[in-house]
Amino acid sequence: MSDKKPSPTRSTFRHGDLRRALLDAGVALAREGGPGAIVLREATRRAGVVPNAAYRHFESRQALLEAVRAAALAALARAIEAEIDAVQQLPEPRRRARAAFRGVGLGYLRFARQEPGLFRTAFAARPFDVHERAAQDDAARGASGMDPFELLCHALDGLVQGGVLPAARRQGAEFMAWSAVHGMAMLLLDGPLRGLGEAPSQALAERLVAMVEQGLLAEAAPQ
What we know:
Elements: H1 18-33, H2 40-47, H3 61-85, H4 93-114, H5 116-122, H6 148-161, H7 173-190, H8 198-217
Helix pairs in contact: 1-2, 1-3, 1-5, 3-4, 3-5, 4-5, 4-6, 4-7, 4-8, 7-8
């Protein structure tokens, strides 16, 4: 009788679903250590296959990184959508539009704090080009069919449609709002505000988003 032990059963993926298993492993690695932790060999180990098996689905580490980046952006979009959905019951359209706009910023900052590895990965794999919408970026969208930047643009358009923001002040507002909120996210993750507790971090997030909103909607200063 042979003393050879049977090979371990691969229980991490179903037949034909190896790409999803590898992507899930990549997302888990990003969640644990950010983009630098995404290693194709480790992803295959976690999926329970030999390294060469991965190349049928991801030709390189960069290819896996791009796929994880899209998944991270989609997770960020869903976090923003949850904040927006929470205020849709407000009866007054102007209040609802303003609350939805604030929800974009609050969802963005909450996700950065709760999922720092995925947040870093979302913006580290390659530049997030807001002008080019390639077909492969469909995976970067939430349930609404929009990615995080498009959700911001949609919320700003809602302010205009609701009569809150003059159309003349809409152009380029997405870049002003995004730069402020993303800057705060980086201060909380890697800057002098890192290590701040959840309550003071949330208070800062609410204050920043209120400042962005007030600045955007303020009357033009007299000449």
